[in-house]
Specification:
There is one protein chain. By secondary structure, the chain is an alpha/beta fold. The chain has 3 domains: 4-60, no CATH class; 84-338, 3-Layer(aba) Sandwich (Aspartate Aminotransferase, domain 2), CATH 3.40.640; 343-469, Alpha-Beta Complex (Aspartate Aminotransferase, domain 1), CATH 3.90.1150. The chain has helices at 24-28, 48-60, 82-88, 91-94, 106-123, 135-152, 171-178, 196-202, 225-234, 255-258, 267-270, 327-363, 390-399, 427-446, 448-452, 465-470; strands at residues 127-129, 161-165, 182-186, 207-213, 238-242, 262-264, 285-287, 299-303, 306-310, 379-382, 406-407, 416-419. The chain has a 7-stranded mixed sheet with strand order 1-7-6-5-4-2-3, sandwiched between helices. Helix 9 (225-234) links the parallel strand 4 and strand 5 (238-242). It is globular and about 80 Å long. It starts with 23 loop residues before the first helix and ends in a 13-residue tail after the last helix. The structure holds pyridoxal-5'-phosphate (PLP). Residues 74-75, 134-136, 169, 171, 213, 242, 244-245, 266, 275, 281, 283 line the site of pyridoxal-5'-phosphate.
Length: 483
């Protein structure tokens, strides 16, 4: 399929303009000469029907949560209620100028303040910033908070190390390194959790903190989390929890009770905004008492029945996002939390964990599950025992109408398939996925070529994924003569 420029004929139009008696020259007269185009823009010239068909066809080439099962590990691709989109689209929110005086922005300030209070309650932590625009942005903000905390205590020269379990999400080491810390990996034990003896050996006065993904990328909850946070606190370090996987324990356990000093949410995974395609997202952070003085400003503060923006944190790390952050994502999260209530939020994690364990147990007759214990919201299978590549299984799944799981991550599992079904899928969908996976496992033995050449039925076959990501071609190349 070509771009819209490959459709249509010169002179064709998809829209009609209101009639005017003014001449083009007169109208152009309103635009300063220096700003006028020298040549007309090269726009596609298509009929309305062609336009609609082109973009509808394009949209159908994509797989989305609204079209099918999307078990992309670590992305929580669940169904998101459309009602919340409607709420975020209310003109009172979308037409509010970011520089509006506070008096005319009271509604949105109250909504965000309420969201902040709810997130603090969910995390069991006293401080919050809503500003970060994504999970990784929250991580970087958290690392900057840790840095500022130690600067304030005169320990920044010494505390240069962040400990990072090898089961952590890939953005974690990147964020710590970006904030200027030295990253030291902590190995996992046979059960896929932090090796406490190895941690003990790494702890010392140079440690600024530990950065853990909770539950980790194997979908396993750290049984020793209380010992870990205690050990790190004992040497004066801080504990960062990557909470992007909150779907696993939402409404059941609180990071604040586990010793977390910083916890980031991925609102665009857990709370009603789909994750993917680069955003928009929101990665709010909750923090423990000792980090409140360093939080980004402004803070949304309630003064009686008014809401104001407070800059009264002299030790703040400053702003990490213009204005208030990605407000519409936050509004969807607020709507989702209020719609579900406490019991509904608990049901989210119940359903997510149940679905992941159902798939894990059903798939292990054909796939190796290297860390095969009770998992949380996701688990990792391996194709090593089948003698085929994880990539081949993933591509074949497309032929059967499923989005592939995350592949080759986490790095500690060879030929990894990281599967996260989420709580919003029916058992029929999970069963259909199992059937496809078992069929692919049989094909791996009986007809491995079918896998090596898959997908067979997709709009595009195998792409050079690295080149597609690194050298994307984002504009139509026109022949030189008509350029
Ligand atoms: C566990 C975990 N941490 C961090 C991130 C990074 O979040 P973002 O993509 O919003 O930067 C993700 C993304 O899915 C994640 O799954």
């Amino acid at each position: 399929m070509g771009t819209i420029y490959r459709v249509g004929q010169r002179g064709r139009q998809a829209t009609s303009w209101p009639a005017t008696r003014r001449s083009p020259e007169e109208l152009l007269g309103h635009i300063p000469k220096g700003l006028r185009r020298r040549e007309p823009p090269r726009l596609p010239e298509v009929s309305q029907g062609e336009l609609v068909r082109h973009y509808t066809a394009l949209s159908r080439m994509n797989h989305g949560v609204d079209t099918g099962f999307y078990p992309l590990g670590s992305c929580t691709m669940k169904y998101n209620p459309k009602l919340h989109e409607e709420i975020a689209r209310l003109p009172g929110f979308t037409e509010l100028h970011p520089l509006s005086p506070l008096e005319s922005a009271q509604g949105v300030l109250e909504a965000l303040w309420r969201l902040g209070e709810l997130l603090k309650r969910i995390a069991g932590m006293p401080g919050i910033t809503l500003q970060p625009a994504a999970g990784a942005h929250g991580e970087l903000t958290g690392m900057l908070l840790i840095k500022r905390y130690f600067e304030d205590r005169g320990e920044s020269e010494r505390r240069r190390v962040i400990l990072l379990p090898d089961s952590a999400h890939g953005t974690n080491p990147a964020s710590a390194a970006m904030a200027g810390f030295r990253v030291i990996p902590v190995p996992s034990n046979e059960g896929g959790t932090v090796d406490l003896r190895a941690l003990e050996e790494l702890l010392g006065e140079e440690v600024a903190g530990i950065m853990m993904t909770v539950p980790n990328t194997l979908g396993i909850f750290e049984r020793d989390i209380l010992s870990i946070t205690e050990m790190v606190h004992e040497v004066g370090g801080l504990c960062y929890f990557d909470g992007a996987n909150l779907n696993a324990f939402l409404g059941r356990a609180r990071p604040g009770d586990m010793g977390a000093d910083i916890f980031h949410f991925n609102l665009h995974k857990t709370f009603s905004t789909p994750h993917g395609s680069g955003g928009p997202g929101a990665g709010p952070l909750t923090v423990s008492e000792r980090l409140i003085p360093y939080l980004p400003v402004p803070q949304i503060v309630r003064e009686g029945d008014r809401f104001v923006l407070s800059y009264d944190l002299p030790k703040s790390i400053g702003r990490v996002h213009p204005f208030l952050g990605n407000v519409l994502v936050m509004l969807k999260a607020l709507a989702y939390i209020l719609t579900l209530g406490d019991e509904g939020l608990r049901e989210v994690s119940t359903g997510a964990v149940l679905a992941a364990n159902y798939l894990r147990v059903r798939l292990r007759e054909a796939y190796e599950i290297p860390y095969d214990g009770l998992c949380k919201h996701e688990f990792v299978a391996s194709t090593v025992g089948l003698g085929v590549k994880a990539r081949d299984v993933a591509k074949r799944l497309i032929d059967y109408g499923f989005h592939p799981p995350t592949v080759y991550f986490p790095l500690i599992v060879e030929e990894a398939l990281m599967i996260e079904p989420t709580e919003t899928e029916t058992v029929e969908t999970l069963d259909a996925f199992v059937e496809a996976m078992l069929r692919i496992a049989r094909e791996a033995v009986e007809n491995p070529e079918a896998l090596a050449e898959a997908p067979h039925n997709a709009p595009v076959r195998r792409l050079d994924e690295v080149r597609a990501a690194r050298e994307p071609i984002l504009r139509e190349e026109f022949p030189a003569s008509t350029d």
